[in-house]
Amino acid sequence: MADVSSQPTHKPGSLWARIRLFLELIKFEHTIFALPFAYLGMTLAAGGLPTLHQFVWVTVAMASARTLAFTVNRLVDRRFDATNPRTARRPSVTGAISPQTMAAFAILSLLLLALAAALLNPLALALLPLALVFLIGYSYTKRFTSLCHWALGFTDGLAAAGGWIAVRGSIFTADDLPAYLLTLAVTFWIAGFDLIYACQDVEHDRREGLFSWPSRAGIASALRLARVSHVLTVLLFALLGLVEGLAWPFWVGLVIAAGLLAYENSIVKPDDLSRINLAFFNINSYIAVTLFAGTFLALLI
User: Fold this and answer.
1) What is the pLDDT of residues 213-254, one digit of tens each?
2) What are the tens digits of pLDDT across the range 243-299?
3) Which of 30, 92, 227, 267 has its CA 20 to 30 Å from the CA of residue 193?
4) What global pTM score does this model have?
5) How far apart are CA 251 and CA 237, in angstroms?
6) What angle do CA 50, 51, 52 make, to 5 degrees?
7) Cα(279)–Cα(46) distance, rounded to whole angstroms?
């Protein structure tokens, strides 16, 4: 899972302190990676501004879905996190946050996600069980397949499809092609930087018998595959722009995003992984916001 562990210096006491520690554990602020693409799907489906009702409940749904997925990930990966020096001080490992507390947050997130889906439209609610298969199941894929990075990417890509479904109430017609292109673009984008991020855990993953691509095929192979994934990301976004006939702000945003992706891949090398955190934290947030802003402006004009 692409995520950086924090090392909290405080012990939870009050309810608010426990909530803050939990939000640190799941890196709640990184919801920024998912929300712009949920909003992209939503604004593309609406051809501009969605309704306030749609905006609010898509936001609730995406934040709840991500919280659920990360909480389950922290629960099921505690044994592996404990043996990894990078993650050994996570509150889920040290006991600062109990499994019961995490389970309670997961259930609350699931209830909020179900409520949001029900309030959006019948199709969103009907497809919720399928979404849950990926939100919960992707955490187990690293145990048996090196395709786990694309499983994570597709799970995040569902945010884009979810935003589209929230507005259109449709996903199975020819008119829904943009939702598929956007979902695939996000899938390869997330998979690409997860491949990069997983390079720092190669020795640990090999010891534990995990199936990350870097641990099975080597760091150089993983970095090459990350580049391929990010080239596909740009091509899929370009195809989306052509299909939708998007105006020039989209293309400006795409050029900027392509440049950022190229830079992200250039600063991490097989013999130098020291800049992975820069690639993960800073650059990817810029990419997400840039693509959303360019697309949204293109729809407005």
Assistant:
1) 999 999 999 999 999 999 999 999 999 999 999 999 999 999
2) 999 999 999 999 999 999 999 999 889 888 888 876 666 788 889 889 999 999 999
3) 92
4) 0.89
5) 9
6) 120
7) 32
Q: What pLDDT does residue 188 have?
A: 97
CATH numeric code, 15-300:
1.10.357.140
User: Helix/strand/coil (H, E, C) string of the chain?
Assistant: CCCCCCCCCCCCCCHHHHHHHHHHHCCHHHHHHCHHHHHHHHHHHHCCCCCHHHHHHHHHHHHHHHHHHHHHHHHHCHHHHHCCCCCCCCHHHHCCCCHHHHHHHHHHHHHHHHHHHHHHCHHHHHCHHHHHHHHHHHHHHCCCCCCHHHHHHHHHHHHHHHHHHHHHCCCCCHHHHHHHHHHHHHHHHHHHHHHHHHHHHHHHHHHHCCCCHHHHHCHHHHHHHHHHHHHHHHHHHHHHHHHHCCCHHHHHHHHHHHHHHHHHHHCCECCECCCHHHHHHHHHHHHHHHHHHHHHHHHHC
